[in-house]
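Progress note, sequence design subtask.
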């Protein structure tokens, strides 16, 4: 169930979630660090008292960056004191550690803890029992580039923040066992545990140094799972039943998944893993592609070493990013172009698509179009990555069921495509990098288009408005002018103001007034 869809465009940066925390004393209370991009706004710590049905902003408008870099998979940067719900700590990307003693009504900066590396900052915060005295709470903050700080009673009788000696410098995720032992994963130094006095390296395998997800069985402090973060797909999940003294590899099998998933979409760049505190043997994990669950982490029928069976629980949570779409008047009702997952031919928009559009060697679709008089003829512009390292055009004569690649001019990168409205051989390609070209033989050869603006199209992640010259050729002059006015207006940066008002006036007066139309570039500055 989506919890943040009520935010409007002006608050769209709050869609990104950089951290999450639960109140152990009140299951209705949830906190999230909201902010998708650090160079945008707003950002804030949001609080819900009804399990995410509604949210309030708490006023800590400091930069979060949930889609910023690989450090987005670290966490959690929010923690609530498990014995006193009024107290919580929040780590930030750029501005250090903050605390509240009144349930996030007010905030104050913790000056004794450094900010850490800019953009990474403090990605993990955790509370736990004091492992030395076995009473009272300790709070930990993982400061990227420096190490783990703790706030606990000291020998002088004061409760202060202090860097724990010889702690790992690049903490990724932290969790605390009920006995107070702190476990920390890192992205380059393996896995560690801290007993309040000294650190011990308990890395499961020297074959990997990057571990993120770590979890402790709520019924057994010695039962620990640690997940490898980088190094490919189907990455190892390690289990220890003696507090990290030794490890075994969990035998895991994915038995339920969407039909279009490829073999690499399981435990790939695993970021987090959690025991289900209510169901013994149940574990959740998340990675680049989705969320997984097993009910038998201990193996089939509890047999040690046998396979734990996992299912991808993706309904309503499909992790896809749409770049483009098309709705032909005949044939399949909808085509989607996605990043990472290429895209789909949707025979029925209410059903999950079964297969990807078969663009061999591509990772994304950045442009789709069709022949209006016969939508069986379609074109798909694909890219091998976000940067268009390999950009290729694919043509279809059966409404996208099968496709054939055709070459583009050397050096052409990303961009958009347009199909003629009436001629199945005519295609226009406008690259991000390269010359605008047209083909009169369905992509076999290309010719430069004189007078067209050069490199005016954005990349795969932009959504520029493109006038499809081949289609508007059949429009009357009023319609063409109207389209130009609307397109330029939509590209303006000002949501309101005199320029937009002038465009509206032109539209109202009739867009066949060429003198006014010619003045648009001047008005655009």
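Output:
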């Amino acid at each position: 169930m989506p919890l943040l869809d009520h935010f409007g465009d002006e608050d769209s940066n709050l869609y990104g979630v950089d951290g999450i925390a639960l109140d152990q004393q009140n299951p209705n209370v949830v906190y999230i660090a909201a902010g998708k991009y650090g160079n945008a706004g707003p950002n804030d710590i949001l609080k819900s008292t009804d399990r995410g049905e509604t949210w309030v902003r708490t006023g800590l408008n400091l930069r979060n960056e949930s889609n910023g870099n690989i450090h987005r998979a670290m966490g959690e940067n929010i923690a609530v004191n498990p014995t006193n719900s009024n107290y919580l700590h929040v780590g930030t990307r750029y501005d250090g550690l903050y605390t509240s003693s009144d349930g996030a009504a007010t905030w104050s900066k913790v000056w004794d803890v450094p900010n850490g590396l800019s953009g990474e900052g403090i990605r993990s915060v955790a509370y736990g029992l004091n492992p030395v005295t076995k009473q009272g709470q300790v709070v930990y903050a993982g400061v990227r580039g420096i190490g783990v700080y703790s706030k606990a009673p000291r020998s002088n009788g004061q409760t202060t923040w202090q860097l724990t000696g010889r702690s790992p410098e690049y903490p990724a995720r932290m969790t605390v066992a009920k006995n107070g032992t702190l476990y920390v994963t890192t992205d380059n130094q393996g896995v560690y545990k801290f007993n309040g006095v000294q650190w011990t390296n308990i890395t499961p395998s020297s074959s990997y140094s990057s571990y993120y997800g770590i979890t402790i069985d709520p019924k057994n402090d010695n039962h620990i799972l640690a997940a490898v973060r980088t190094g490919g797909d189907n990455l190892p999940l390690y289990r220890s039943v003696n507090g990290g003294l030794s490890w075994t590899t969990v035998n895991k099998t994915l038995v339920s998944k969407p039909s279009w998933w490829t073999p690499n979409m399981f435990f790939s760049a695993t970021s987090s893993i959690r025991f289900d505190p209510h169901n013994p043997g149940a574990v959740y994990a998340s990675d680049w592609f989705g969320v997984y669950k097993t009910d038998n982490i201990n193996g089939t029928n509890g047999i040690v070493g046998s396979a734990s069976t996992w299912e991808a629980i993706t309904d309503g949570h499909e992790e896809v990013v749409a770049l483009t779409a098309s709705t032909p008047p005949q044939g399949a009702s909808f085509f989607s172009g996605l990043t990472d997952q290429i895209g789909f031919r949707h025979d029925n928009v209410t059903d999950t698509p079964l297969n990807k559009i078969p663009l061999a060697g591509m990772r994304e679709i950045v442009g789709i179009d069709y022949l209006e008089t016969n939508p069986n003829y379609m074109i798909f512009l694909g890219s091998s990555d976000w940067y268009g390292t390999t950009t290729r055009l694919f043509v279809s004569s059966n409404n996208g069921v099968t496709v054939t690649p055709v070459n583009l001019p050397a050096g052409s990168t990303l961009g958009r495509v347009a199909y003629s409205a009436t001629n199945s051989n005519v295609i226009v390609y406008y690259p991000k990098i390269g010359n605008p070209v047209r083909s009169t033989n369905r992509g076999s050869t290309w010719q430069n288009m004189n007078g067209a603006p050069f490199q005016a199209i954005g990349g795969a992640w932009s959504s520029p408005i493109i006038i499809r010259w081949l289609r508007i050729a059949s429009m009357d002059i009023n319609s063409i002018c109207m389209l130009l006015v609307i397109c330029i207006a939509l590209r303006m940066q000002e949501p309101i103001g005199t320029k937009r008002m002038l465009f509206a006036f032109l539209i109202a007066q009739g867009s066949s007034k060429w003198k006014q139309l010619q003045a648009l570039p001047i008005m655009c500055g």
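Residues 477-491 form the longest helix (15 residues). Work on this subtask will continue into the next period as scheduled.
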